[in-house]
Structure formats: C-alpha cells, structure tokens
Write a structure and sequence with these properties.
The structure holds 2 protein chains of 2 kinds. Chain A is mainly α. Chain A has 12 helices and 2 strands, in the order ααββαααααααααα. In chain A, α3 crosses α5 (106-123) and α9 packs across α11 (203-229). Chain B contains 7 helices and 1 strand, in the order αααααβαα. In chain B, α1 (3-13) crosses α4 (44-55), α3 crosses α4 and α4 (44-55) packs across α5 (57-87). The chains are: A mainly alpha, B mainly alpha. β2 of chain A pairs parallel with β1 of chain B, so a sheet runs across the interface.
Chain lengths: 247, 198
C-alpha cells in the first residue's frame, strides 16, 4: 500500500506519487480512522515567543482552509493533490509563523505559500504523468453541475453549465501564470495590487497577464455563445488571432 | 445626469470618441479593464469605454454575458470545492495552539526528568564504589578491636595473676621475715654501735 493511500481515509482514489512525496516531506501524522493530524505544538519549541495570528491554528484553518483548497483545486484540477497541498500550505505557514511580519494579510500570505507549492508541484514530471491518469482529476462537467439554478429555466441553466464547462477548460489551457492571476482575480476576487504581492510581479505585468487571459476566455466564450445561438461570433476570428499572437 | 449625456460628455473629452462610439468596438485592453475592474484605469480610458457601452448594445451584451459566465464559474467552483472539502476527513488540530510561554512548565518537567536520569546512574555507581571502602574500613576496625581484645585479656591475666599471688610484688621483701629480719637486725646493730663510738 502506498504511503498516500495510508494517509487517505478511504483510499478509493488513485494517488499521485508527487502528492505522496509532498506528504512525506510534510511529516504529518495520521490519526485513527484516517483522520489527519497536525503535529503537536511541542514539536516546534524553537519558535520565538512573539505571538502571531497563526498561534490559533484551529481558527486559521477554519477560516482559510476552504479558500486555499478552492484555489489549489482550481489550479491543479486534482482533488487529492489539492488537499495534500492545502495541508502542506498550513504546515509551512505554521512552521514559518515566526517569519510572518504581517506586512500583508494572512490570506495573502497563505495564498502565496499555496501558489509556490502548486508551482513546485506542477513542475515535476511525475505530476504531469499523474494528471493524465489520475482518477482524482476534476471533470469540467462535474464542476459545471454545481452551477446554481437561481430560478432560471432549464434551458438557461443548461446553457450556464455549458458556459462554465467551457471556461473551466479554457482556464486549464492557460499558462500557469495567466491561470493563477485569472483565478486570483475572478475566483478569489483579489485586487490587482494584492495579486501582484502574491505573485511577486509588477502591477503592469499582472494586468498584462490578466488581459491576455481574459482575451482567451472571451474568445472561447464568444465562440461557445455563437455555437449555442448558431451564429458566427463577432470578431471571433480576429480575436483568436490576437490571442494566439499574445500567447 | 442621463446616460446619454454622460456618453456625450465622455465623447467630448476625447477627440476620437465620436468615431469609437459609432463604428468601432471596445479594444481588448478596454474590455479587460472593464472586466477586471482595475481602479487605476479610472481615468480617460475607462470613462471612454463606459461611454461606449452606453451606445453599443453589442459590446454591452457581450460584456454582461462574459461577466455572468465568470460569475457562474466562480459560484460553481466554490460550491464544488466546498462539497469536496466536506467529504474529506477532518484534520485533527491542537485544541488551542499554545504559545511557547505556556510550554515553560513542560520545559521544567523535561529538565527535571533529564536531571533525574543523569543522576540515577551516578548514584548507583557511587553506591557500588562505597561498598568496598566500607568493607576495608570494617576489616581495619575489626583488627583493631581484636588487638584491643588481646591487650585487654593480657591485662586481665596480669591483674588476675597479681590478685592470685599470695604476696604482692611490692610487698615481696616482707614475705619471708626470718632471713630478712636477721640481716636487718645485724645491720641495725652495726649502725647503732658505730653511732655510739662516734
């Protein structure tokens, strides 16, 4: 049995080996019945006495775990890897809490850690292999099924689902940087300066990446809309050419 | 101010505004700025783009449609992630992550335990090394005691022999009065006669 399977409660899904490595590096413990455990605070006796927002880890996890997990899930499109890296994010943050100078918000700091972990994770060849074969990969249609109804007609709801599935596929095809910036802006609703702080790029570069990502998403959206309406998209050809040129 | 008036005002502020309002559509950058809502571009470019939206239904519809689609995407992603997270096992966290200050008693307990651990072997070693010394001391003491006992016995024997003797050593001269008395009388008479002659 792989280590990753031992970590998971049910072990029903295939496990990316890269994720297993991450978990091993994290040194996390496993509780009974597959419940994950964080190392006791006694393991970090060397930390400075200065109090940090991360001292209350339970509250921090309760507040930010959904957000970090959501971002990693949208970035990696792999449930197991997203969960593993979410845990790794909080472990890293906990270990480095003495270095958190509060010059940015805790959410920004956590997302920055998560982004770096995701970047390292996606660089590995192992990740690319597992991405192809992993059963825990996120299916676009599966996510699109979660589009809220909002009292729309069945037809409108189906169109919305198709649009969401289309955006999911398009975002997955963006470059890593464009995807991260797009997700931070439109899913996490971060402001541009905040995104620049997380990514570590100048404002102009962040905007440039965001506009390029939007151009790709817009082109796909127009094409999808035209297909659903059975009419040629306006300036679709020109926009596709522009998008290719940008990329 | 009505939307139409705003459009005209915006068009009046920019020389080429009229041409853009009538014929062209939003550029990719303007569209991006409108979508991203970048507040830094709140100057002329954004005002012009917003003015264009008021007169160009096509661009306005496209922008609204894309905004709506991205909104659906966000809602679906959040709902999916929340549901996925709900199905995952919960983490076990320290109930209240204690600050290092509250770990001071733990430090003391650990230090005491280490001290005891270090002292116990020393105590055992010391006990082992003291035992032979005590044995040698006791043997010396025993030999001294034996010597004292011997001397005591000799003394007692002497005392017994002294007591058991019929005449003490100091009175031995008086033990046989016949020999000694004649000798003594002769000596006494000689002494007396000599004194008379003088």
């Amino acid at each position: 049995m792989s280590r990753r399977r031992a970590i998971r409660a049910g072990g029903s899904r295939a496990a990316p080996a890269g994720a297993a490595q991450q978990m091993g590096a994290a040194g996390t413990l496993m509780g009974h019945e597959g419940v994950r455990m964080f190392p006791s605070t006694s393991l970090s006796l060397g930390a400075e006495a200065r109090s940090t927002p991360l001292d209350d880890l339970e509250n921090v996890v309760a507040l930010y775990q959904p957000r970090v997990f959501r971002f990693l899930l949208a970035t990696l499109r792999d449930r197991d890897a997203a969960e593993t890296l979410t845990q790794e994010t909080f472990l890293r943050a906990w270990s480095a809490r003495a270095r958190f100078r509060e010059d940015c918000s805790l959410a920004t700091w956590l997302i920055r850690i998560a982004l770096n972990l995701a970047r390292d994770h996606t660089r590995t060849r192992r990740f690319r292999f597992w991405k192809r074969v992993s059963a825990s990969a996120v299916d676009a249609a599966e996510v699109a099924a979660f589009v809220p109804t909002h009292d729309r007609s069945v037809e409108a709801h189906l169109i919305a689902q198709q649009q969401v599935a289309g955006i999911l596929e398009t975002v997955a095809g963006l470059s890593n940087r464009q995807r991260s910036i797009f997700l931070l802006r439109f899913m996490e609703e971060m402001e541009i300066p905040e995104i620049a702080a997380v990514i570590g790029l100048p404002l102009g570069t962040v905007k440039s990446h965001l506009y390029r990502a939007l151009a790709v998403v817009r082109a796909q959206h127009d094409m999808h809309g035209a297909t659903s309406r059975n009419q040629p998209p306006r300036n679709a050809t020109m926009r596709n050419a522009t998008t290719k040129e940008m990329q | 101010m009505t939307p139409q008036a705003r459009t005209e005002e915006a068009a009046g502020q920019h020389g080429d505004g009229a041409a853009m309002l009538g014929e062209n559509h939003l550029t990719g950058e303007q569209f991006g700025e409108l979508m991203a809502g970048t507040t830094e571009a709140a100057g002329g470019e954004l005002a012009l783009a917003e003015a264009h939206l008021l007169v160009c239904e096509q661009c306005a519809a496209e922008l609204a449609s894309l905004r709506e689609a991205i909104c659906f995407y966000r809602e679906a992603s959040i709902a999916y992630a929340d549901e996925e997270l709900r199905q995952r096992p919960r983490w076990i966290l320290p109930a209240r992550s204690s600050s290092p200050r509250s770990l001071v008693p733990a430090y003391w307990v650990a230090a005491a335990a280490m001290l005891l651990t270090a002292l116990f072997p020393l105590q055992v070693m010391r006990r082992h090394s003291v035992a032979p010394a005590a044995a040698s001391v006791s043997s010396v003491a025993a030999s001294d005691a034996g010597r004292d006992a011997q001397s005591d016995e000799a003394l007692l024997e002497d005392v017994n022999s002294e007591i058991s003797a019929s005449v003490p050593t100091s009175m031995q001269a008086l033990a046989d009065p016949s020999d000694d008395a004649s000798t003594a009388s002769i000596a006494t008479s000689d002494t007396t006669s000599n004194q008379r002659k003088d």
